[in-house]
Design goal:
It is a single chain. By secondary structure, the protein is of the alpha+beta class. The protein has three domains: 77 residues, no CATH class; 59 residues, no CATH class; 87 residues, no CATH class. The chain is 29% helix and 25% strand. The strands form five sheets. Strands 3-2-1-4 form a four-stranded mixed sheet, with no helix packed on it. Strand 9 and strand 10 form a beta hairpin. Helix 7 crosses helix 8. It is flat.
């Protein structure tokens, strides 16, 4: 997807106005901060002309590609970043570390060694110190919360399953209830996470990774119980 800056939109391209497609009132407010002359928000319309002298509102598909430069809200660099959640900051250059340590009077390391290369988290006192010292936007760059994948492919051996927010699919068939049933059976009957039973006063303990399912639905190939449990865990993550 091609990206454009606010500066790009301030000038007509090929002498044509820009038309931006938005999805909600929040996006309209963000756009209006940069282009105050756009029309007021109307929930019945999803497209707004962005121009210094011209204005308009309507359906995005009403505007022709011949007469207008049509883009989506998320194609605007500055606004696309604002839509994302900042989780922390990392050093732009490693040589800034020593100077920053002097500002905050600490011997702690700031070598982008936390998750996602973060030096310190968004709500950390260090972020406040850096902002007050005027170096947050000079020495550091924001780290955004990773976007959730739209789908995950899980290999089961001889076949694969597709996990989406709306369900778990084998080819085009929704098998969410089937996978949920396997997970419920395992959790309710063997809540220790292992198959455990006694034989002549001796315990037998079998982990899920060692349990083989000979047939699952229309698939007659062997699969591991642990793989099915993993599929359900991925489903719970992606649908949140």
């Amino acid at each position: 997807m091609e990206m454009y800056s606010i500066k790009d939109l301030e000038t007509r391209k090929e002498n044509k106005c820009w038309v931006v497609k938005i999805n909600n009132e929040k996006q309209h407010k963000a756009l209006k901060q940069y282009f105050p002359n756009i029309w007021d928000y109307n929930k019945e319309s999803n497209a707004y002309i962005v121009d210094k002298t011209n204005s308009g509102i309507g359906d995005f598909y009403y505007y022709s590609n011949i007469s207008y430069n049509k883009i989506l809200f998320n194609q605007i660099k500055e606004l696309n970043m604002k839509e994302k959640e900042i989780i922390g900051y990392k050093l732009i250059k490693p040589e800034y570390e020593e100077a920053f340590k002097k500002i905050v009077n600490t011997s702690c390391s700031f070598k982008n060694n936390l998750e996602y290369g973060i030096c310190f988290q968004f709500n950390s006192p260090y972020a406040t110190y850096a902002k007050k010292a005027g170096v947050l936007d000079i020495w550091f760059e924001p780290v955004y919360k990773p976007e959730k994948p739209k789908e995950v492919i899980v290999e089961m051996g001889s076949f694969s399953l597709t996990v989406k927010p709306e369900g778990i699919f084998h080819k085009n068939e929704d098998i969410t209830s089937y996978v949920k049933g396997i997970e419920s059976w395992w959790k309710n009957d063997f809540n220790s996470g292992n198959l455990k039973f006694g034989v002549k006063n001796y315990d037998c303990l079998i982990p899920a990774s060692n349990i083989i399912i000979e047939k699952s639905g229309c698939e007659s190939n062997q699969t591991k119980l642990s793989n099915w449990l993993f599929v359900y865990e991925e489903y719970l993550k992606i649908k949140q």
